[in-house]
Amino acid sequence: MNGVVLVSGIPGAGKTTVSRLLARRLPRAAHLESDAIQDLIVAGGLHPQEEPREEAERQLQLRTRNVALLADSFFEHGFTPVVDDTLGSASRLDDYLRELRARPIYLVVLAPALDRLYFGAIELGAWRQDGQGIAEPILAERRAKSPPRVVGSRSHESGALADYLAALGPHAVTPMGSSLKICLIAEGAADLYPRLGPTSEWDTAAAQAILESAGGRMIDTAGQPLRYNSKADLLNPHFLAFGDQRRDWLAPIRSSRGRQDRN
User: In this structure, is the dihedral angle defined by the CA atoms of residues 53, 58, 59 and 61, taken in order, positive or negative?
Assistant: First the structure.
């Protein structure tokens, strides 16, 4: 395939997973995840919706420009760049069309339809319904499997996540690219989702409600439950989602911090 593939969709649509699978099926391809490019800024970085908005917008445009430069470089060396990014408006697409030199540009918009419904209520429970079938009750796993089943995405593993998983010990990772990771924990199909990178409140609020209705928890790295609409911005802290509440899932974080302090 000649050109650049731009994969977009709503948050949680599975852009990262689909982009990586597509790139692997091509003879020569590179997967470029825009969030990973943003995370190269280790001091002074701002994500969309953060204040001051003007600076956040400038950094968003910088991210687009850097992704485009990297995509053009891969293209010039015979690779098909597969870019995944959330294009919330026509102007964001215009930014890519302006910055990218490579042509043609293929636009893929994901609109997933799993035909699956999760719902629940605290103290009543949680359920999963597939299609027109009968809703079945779900429960988070009370005793984590050995090794624990971790959901996450290896394609944008941060240094903090790599340190956490190393300190966690033996584990099995299922790569996914959407907030359905939390719902997998709610139905007992996974044990842990460590999110040690940026997310927004709208990414997690509904899934957290399902998880807690199913008996699981979501906590920040200080051990406190995630709360919403309680601060000026809508960004979440780093968090852990899990079912087994007897296990100390924060221990790997303390271990990683201890090693950093000694160094």
Answer: positive
Chain CA centroid to CA 208, Å: 14
Crossing angle between the packed helical segments 251-262 and 159-168, to the nearest 10 degrees: 110
Q: Which pLDDT value is given to residue 178?
A: 64
- CATH code for 116-262? 3.40.190.80
Q: Give Cα separations from 48 to 45, 87, 111, 216 (angstroms).
A: 10, 12, 22, 29
Backbone angles phi, psi at 214, to 5 degrees: -90, 5
Q: Give the strand pairing for 217-220 and 239-242.
A: antiparallel
DSSP single-letter state for residue 195: E
Q: Is 168 helix (H, G, I), strand (E, B) or coil?
A: helix
pLDDT tens readout for residues 180-231: 899 999 999 999 999 998 888 888 888 898 999 999 999 999 999 998 878 8
SS3 content of the chain, % helix, strand, coil (to 5): 35, 25, 40
What angle separates helix 90-99 from helix 53-76, to the nearest 10 degrees?
Answer: 40
Query: What does the domain layout of the chain look like in residue ranges?
Result: 4-110, 116-262
Q: Which two tokens stand for residue 173?
A: 């990772």
- Note the pLDDT tens digit of each residue in 96-136: 989 999 988 888 877 666 678 888 887 788 999 888 899 99
User: In terms of DSSP bridges, do strands 4-9 and 105-110 run parallel, antiparallel, or are they unpaired?
Assistant: parallel
The CATH number of 4-110 is 3.40.50.300
More confident site: 256 or 108: 108
| CA distance linking residue 81 with residue 73, whole number of Å | 9
Helices vs strands, H then E, count in the chain:
8, 12
Place of tokens 């003007």: 54
Amino acid at 66: N
